[in-house]
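Worked problem 6 (solution included).
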Amino acid sequence: MSMNIEPKPFFHLLSDETRLRCLMLMQVEGELCVCELTHALDVIQPKISRHLAMLRDAGLVSDRRQGQWIYYQIHPELADWACEILQTTADASTGRAPFVDDLVALQNMPNRPSAACCA
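Solution. The predicted structure is:
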């Protein structure tokens, strides 16, 4: 069963650079902790959290808590057409700034949550 999201709010959410960059990292990397997104985008945590809350409230991402950390991913029941747009956008963003810089920063992040601690 896929989630029903209307195109207008979907594209409005994608029109913000911070939200788009978060979504592109999740599209490529899968589930990410808030601290990973903060590090990769070099943006303060309250700003990232505010944008993630908007994406979650609209149904584009889902979250889960593990201890004190909150992890986000593209919602597994997001409509197929929306998933295709995210994948096409990620494909078109490969090798382009700021998306490539975000991915490099994330991959070079010390103490990523997968190592059981957060920066």
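Discussion: Helices lie at 7-14, 17-29, 34-41, 45-58, 80-93, 99-107.
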